[in-house]
Amino acid sequence: MTAKVDLKVVLLGREASGKTCLVDRYLHDRFNFGVNQATVGAAFGAKKLQIGGHTITMGIWDTAGSERYEAMSRIYYRGAKAAITCFDVMDPTSFERLKFWVNELRNNEEHCKLYICGTKVDIAEGNRSGRVDVHSVSDYADEVHARYFDTSSKTGQGIQELFTAIAEDFIQSESKTRTLAADGATVPLARRDPVGSGRSAEPAGGCCA
């Protein structure tokens, strides 16, 4: 079954950075503790939202984090309006890997809005000395013009706020584009999504891909 997707969102990040758990909590309000089967290729989910009198359908692509699937991930982020780049707040190497995807998007999808997402903050509460420095992440987010959110798929912390912000930013951007068009300004044509942003696929992953 296909459905029209207004807002294509892609999740990128290292394997086991919590991407699949993040989507599962947002779409289904659940957390499957202990399930960590890696996503293969990508999984798709969609949600209809009512934001400020607007109705939109958000399509979310959860991509595989393994480096061997990088080429495939590039297919899925094409045409995305928003990208959530995830890192495990207790894993500095996952934050360094996040920078790779930020550079990818900046070089290939310049109109895609970036959101940096720190995951598993519930674990950091008991071990603050071991987590990635919040100020370093915040400074980096400012540097690349991204919005930064800390989240926990276990407790739900920050997840609704993250996706609501994405939807609100999209609506604001679309309203601005329509205003420019009405005023006669030149507006760039949207790129076609080669994988079909409205195409549904069965989830192929577990909790913490």
Automatic annotation (TrEMBL):
**Could you tell me which InterPro entries the record lists for this protein?**
P-loop_NTPase, Small_GTP-bd, Small_GTPase
Q: Name one GO cellular component term.
A: spindle
Keywords tagged on the record: Autophagy, Cytoplasm, Cytoplasmic vesicle, Cytoskeleton, GTP-binding, Hydrolase, Lipoprotein, Magnesium, Membrane, Metal-binding, Nucleotide-binding, Phosphoprotein, Prenylation, Protein transport, Transport
Q: Where in the cell is it found?
A: Cytoplasm, Cytoskeleton, Spindle; Cytoplasm, Cytosol; Cytoplasm, Perinuclear region; Cytoplasmic vesicle, Autophagosome membrane
Known catalytic reactions: GTP + H2O = GDP + phosphate + H(+)
This protein's source sits in the domain of life called Eukaryota
Chain residue ranges for the region called Disordered: 189-209
GO process terms (BP) = autophagy; protein transport
Membrane topology field: Lipid-anchor
Q: Which PROSITE patterns match?
A: RAB, RAS
Q: EC number(s) per UniProt? A: 3.6.5.2
What Gene3D superfamilies does UniProt report for this protein, alphabetically?
Answer: P-loop containing nucleotide triphosphate hydrolases
Named from the GO MF annotations, one term is: GTP binding
Query: What broad class describes the main subcellular location of this protein?
Result: cytoplasm
Q: Which is one Pfam family of this protein?
A: Ras
Q: Which cofactor does it need?
A: Mg(2+)
How does this protein assemble? Interacts with ZFYVE20. Does not interact with the GDP dissociation inhibitors ARHGDIA and ARHGDIB.
- Functional summary from the UniProt entry: The small GTPases Rab are key regulators of intracellular membrane trafficking, from the formation of transport vesicles to their fusion with membranes. Rabs cycle between an inactive GDP-bound form and an active GTP-bound form that is able to recruit to membranes different sets of downstream effectors directly responsible for vesicle formation, movement, tethering and fusion. RAB24 is an atypical RAB protein that presents low GTPase activity and thereby exists predominantly in the GTP-bound active state. RAB24 is required for the clearance of late autophagic vacuoles under basal conditions.
So what family is this one in?
Belongs to the small GTPase superfamily. Rab family.
Q: What is this protein called?
A: Ras-related protein Rab-24
